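Quick one:
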Amino acid sequence: MTQRTPLNPALKLLLELGPLALFFFANARSGLFAATAAFMAAVAIALAVSYALTRRLPIMAVVSAIVVAIFGGLTLALESETFIKLKPTIVYALFAATLAAGLLFNKPFLAIVFDSAFHLTEEGWRKLTLRWIVFFIVMAALNEIVWRTQSTDFWVSFKLFGFVPLTFAFAALQYPLLTRYARKDDAA
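Output:
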Protein backbone atom coordinates (compact mmCIF):
# COMPACT_ATOMS: atom_id res chain seq x y z
CA MET A 1 0.00 0.00 0.00
CA THR A 2 1.49 3.37 -1.00
CA GLN A 3 1.61 6.32 1.37
CA ARG A 4 -0.55 9.25 0.27
CA THR A 5 1.03 12.67 0.07
CA PRO A 6 -0.97 15.01 2.30
CA LEU A 7 -1.54 18.59 1.21
CA ASN A 8 -0.44 21.44 3.41
CA PRO A 9 -3.67 22.54 5.21
CA ALA A 10 -3.25 26.17 4.09
CA LEU A 11 -2.80 25.10 0.47
CA LYS A 12 -5.78 22.75 0.73
CA LEU A 13 -7.92 25.60 2.05
CA LEU A 14 -6.70 27.87 -0.77
CA LEU A 15 -7.56 25.23 -3.38
CA GLU A 16 -11.03 24.79 -1.91
CA LEU A 17 -11.92 28.43 -1.22
CA GLY A 18 -9.84 30.17 -3.89
CA PRO A 19 -12.26 29.49 -6.75
CA LEU A 20 -15.18 30.73 -4.63
CA ALA A 21 -13.32 33.91 -3.66
CA LEU A 22 -12.44 34.49 -7.32
CA PHE A 23 -16.12 34.02 -8.20
CA PHE A 24 -17.05 36.70 -5.65
CA PHE A 25 -14.46 39.22 -6.88
CA ALA A 26 -15.11 38.55 -10.58
CA ASN A 27 -18.84 39.06 -10.02
CA ALA A 28 -18.18 42.39 -8.30
CA ARG A 29 -16.01 43.60 -11.18
CA SER A 30 -17.52 42.03 -14.29
CA GLY A 31 -20.86 40.42 -13.48
CA LEU A 32 -22.17 36.92 -12.99
CA PHE A 33 -21.37 35.51 -16.43
CA ALA A 34 -17.69 36.51 -16.28
CA ALA A 35 -17.59 35.25 -12.69
CA THR A 36 -19.05 31.92 -13.78
CA ALA A 37 -16.39 31.49 -16.48
CA ALA A 38 -13.64 32.43 -14.02
CA PHE A 39 -15.10 30.05 -11.43
CA MET A 40 -15.18 27.17 -13.89
CA ALA A 41 -11.54 27.76 -14.86
CA ALA A 42 -10.43 28.17 -11.23
CA VAL A 43 -12.14 24.92 -10.17
CA ALA A 44 -10.41 23.04 -13.00
CA ILE A 45 -7.04 24.57 -12.10
CA ALA A 46 -7.53 23.76 -8.40
CA LEU A 47 -8.29 20.12 -9.27
CA ALA A 48 -5.23 19.93 -11.54
CA VAL A 49 -2.96 21.40 -8.85
CA SER A 50 -4.40 19.07 -6.22
CA TYR A 51 -3.80 16.07 -8.47
CA ALA A 52 -0.28 17.19 -9.39
CA LEU A 53 0.63 17.46 -5.72
CA THR A 54 -1.10 14.34 -4.34
CA ARG A 55 -1.62 12.08 -7.37
CA ARG A 56 -5.26 11.61 -6.43
CA LEU A 57 -8.51 13.54 -6.69
CA PRO A 58 -10.81 14.10 -3.70
CA ILE A 59 -14.22 12.67 -4.59
CA MET A 60 -16.21 15.64 -3.24
CA ALA A 61 -14.07 18.06 -5.24
CA VAL A 62 -14.56 15.99 -8.40
CA VAL A 63 -18.34 15.84 -7.96
CA SER A 64 -18.47 19.57 -7.30
CA ALA A 65 -16.27 20.27 -10.35
CA ILE A 66 -18.53 18.18 -12.59
CA VAL A 67 -21.61 20.03 -11.37
CA VAL A 68 -19.80 23.38 -11.79
CA ALA A 69 -18.88 22.44 -15.37
CA ILE A 70 -22.43 21.36 -16.24
CA PHE A 71 -24.32 24.19 -14.56
CA GLY A 72 -21.70 26.82 -15.34
CA GLY A 73 -21.72 25.69 -18.96
CA LEU A 74 -25.52 25.91 -19.09
CA THR A 75 -25.38 29.36 -17.48
CA LEU A 76 -22.99 30.63 -20.13
CA ALA A 77 -24.51 28.81 -23.12
CA LEU A 78 -28.09 29.80 -22.32
CA GLU A 79 -27.19 33.17 -20.78
CA SER A 80 -29.32 32.35 -17.74
CA GLU A 81 -28.29 32.95 -14.13
CA THR A 82 -30.64 30.23 -12.92
CA PHE A 83 -28.28 27.35 -13.60
CA ILE A 84 -25.29 28.62 -11.63
CA LYS A 85 -27.63 29.58 -8.79
CA LEU A 86 -29.01 26.02 -8.73
CA LYS A 87 -25.52 24.51 -8.52
CA PRO A 88 -25.14 24.72 -4.72
CA THR A 89 -28.60 23.23 -4.22
CA ILE A 90 -27.72 20.31 -6.51
CA VAL A 91 -24.32 19.74 -4.86
CA TYR A 92 -25.77 19.84 -1.32
CA ALA A 93 -28.61 17.52 -2.34
CA LEU A 94 -26.17 15.09 -4.00
CA PHE A 95 -23.98 15.02 -0.90
CA ALA A 96 -27.01 14.42 1.34
CA ALA A 97 -28.31 11.66 -0.93
CA THR A 98 -24.90 10.00 -1.16
CA LEU A 99 -24.46 10.01 2.60
CA ALA A 100 -28.00 8.66 3.03
CA ALA A 101 -27.25 5.86 0.56
CA GLY A 102 -24.12 5.07 2.55
CA LEU A 103 -26.23 4.75 5.70
CA LEU A 104 -28.71 2.56 3.87
CA PHE A 105 -25.93 0.20 2.71
CA ASN A 106 -24.00 0.47 5.99
CA LYS A 107 -21.01 2.15 4.32
CA PRO A 108 -19.43 5.06 6.20
CA PHE A 109 -18.77 7.35 3.25
CA LEU A 110 -17.64 10.07 5.65
CA ALA A 111 -14.71 7.84 6.64
CA ILE A 112 -13.59 8.00 3.00
CA VAL A 113 -14.27 11.74 2.70
CA PHE A 114 -12.39 12.57 5.89
CA ASP A 115 -9.54 10.37 4.66
CA SER A 116 -8.99 8.55 7.94
CA ALA A 117 -8.51 11.82 9.85
CA PHE A 118 -11.00 10.55 12.41
CA HIS A 119 -11.29 7.07 13.91
CA LEU A 120 -14.85 6.70 15.15
CA THR A 121 -17.03 3.85 16.33
CA GLU A 122 -19.81 2.67 14.03
CA GLU A 123 -22.33 4.59 16.10
CA GLY A 124 -20.15 7.69 15.87
CA TRP A 125 -19.97 7.48 12.06
CA ARG A 126 -23.73 6.92 11.88
CA LYS A 127 -24.51 9.94 14.07
CA LEU A 128 -21.99 12.15 12.29
CA THR A 129 -23.39 11.08 8.93
CA LEU A 130 -26.96 11.85 10.01
CA ARG A 131 -25.89 15.30 11.16
CA TRP A 132 -24.15 16.05 7.85
CA ILE A 133 -27.18 14.82 5.90
CA VAL A 134 -29.42 17.25 7.80
CA PHE A 135 -26.84 20.03 7.38
CA PHE A 136 -26.65 19.52 3.60
CA ILE A 137 -30.44 19.48 3.30
CA VAL A 138 -30.67 22.72 5.29
CA MET A 139 -27.94 24.29 3.13
CA ALA A 140 -29.74 23.25 -0.06
CA ALA A 141 -32.98 24.80 1.23
CA LEU A 142 -31.13 27.93 2.34
CA ASN A 143 -29.57 28.33 -1.10
CA GLU A 144 -33.01 28.05 -2.67
CA ILE A 145 -34.42 30.69 -0.33
CA VAL A 146 -31.53 33.10 -0.84
CA TRP A 147 -31.28 32.94 -4.64
CA ARG A 148 -35.04 33.08 -5.15
CA THR A 149 -35.65 36.02 -2.78
CA GLN A 150 -32.48 38.14 -2.96
CA SER A 151 -30.47 39.94 -5.62
CA THR A 152 -27.74 38.15 -7.54
CA ASP A 153 -25.06 40.21 -5.83
CA PHE A 154 -26.44 39.30 -2.40
CA TRP A 155 -26.54 35.60 -3.37
CA VAL A 156 -22.93 35.69 -4.61
CA SER A 157 -21.82 37.38 -1.38
CA PHE A 158 -23.80 34.89 0.69
CA LYS A 159 -22.03 32.00 -1.03
CA LEU A 160 -18.72 33.25 0.34
CA PHE A 161 -19.70 35.04 3.54
CA GLY A 162 -22.69 32.91 4.52
CA PHE A 163 -22.21 29.33 3.37
CA VAL A 164 -18.49 29.12 4.17
CA PRO A 165 -18.76 30.35 7.80
CA LEU A 166 -21.87 28.22 8.36
CA THR A 167 -19.97 25.15 7.15
CA PHE A 168 -16.96 25.89 9.37
CA ALA A 169 -19.22 26.55 12.36
CA PHE A 170 -21.17 23.34 11.80
CA ALA A 171 -17.98 21.32 11.44
CA ALA A 172 -16.57 22.83 14.63
CA LEU A 173 -19.77 21.99 16.50
CA GLN A 174 -19.14 18.31 15.70
CA TYR A 175 -16.05 18.21 17.92
CA PRO A 176 -17.90 16.87 21.00
CA LEU A 177 -19.31 14.00 18.91
CA LEU A 178 -15.85 13.27 17.49
CA THR A 179 -14.34 13.02 20.95
CA ARG A 180 -17.26 11.10 22.47
CA TYR A 181 -17.23 8.42 19.76
CA ALA A 182 -13.49 8.21 19.12
CA ARG A 183 -12.49 4.60 18.68
CA LYS A 184 -10.23 3.38 21.47
CA ASP A 185 -7.21 1.51 20.10
CA ASP A 186 -6.31 -1.68 21.95
CA ALA A 187 -2.62 -0.88 21.37
CA ALA A 188 -2.76 2.07 23.76
